[in-house]
Automatic annotation (TrEMBL):
It comes from Lactobacillus helveticus CIRM-BIA 953. Keywords: Membrane, Sugar transport, Transmembrane, Transmembrane helix, Transport. This is Transmembrane protein. GO terms for cellular component: plasma membrane. It is found in: Cell membrane. Belongs to the GRP transporter (TC 2.A.7.5) family.
């Protein structure tokens, strides 16, 4: 599990840096703890990518990991109510279809 060791090393290095530069007030700030869930979600995603590389190979795993653009775009439109013109929605839809088609073609061949 080199991933865990790397993460632990980054955590220790950040702690040493904060203590050495006397920036320990960071440990008392609310914002420092509010970003922990985002870090955990990122760690889960990175671990899933590593497992996917082992199971599927790097070619397929990388292509599939780039489909997050589709999820982000749809999430922005649905949940954040991003405003676009009708023409903008058409171009966005075409782009998303091309991304998914490219991923499918790349993974098949």
């Amino acid at each position: 599990m080199i991933f865990f060791a790397e993460t632990l090393g980054m955590l220790i290095a950040a702690f040493i840096y904060l203590v050495a530069t006397k920036q320990t007030q960071v440990f008392k700030e609310k914002q420092s703890y509010q970003v922990i869930p985002a870090g955990i979600i990122y760690a889960i995603a990175a671990l899933a990518y590593i497992v996917s590389v082992k199971m599927n190979g790097v070619n397929l795993a990388f292509v599939m990991s780039q489909l997050c653009v589709v999820i982000s775009t749809l999430g922005g439109i649905i949940f954040l109510h991003e405003a676009k013109t009708k023409k903008g929605f058409i171009y966005t839809g075409i782009g998303l279809v091309l991304i998914v088609a490219g991923a499918v073609l790349t993974s098949v061949f």
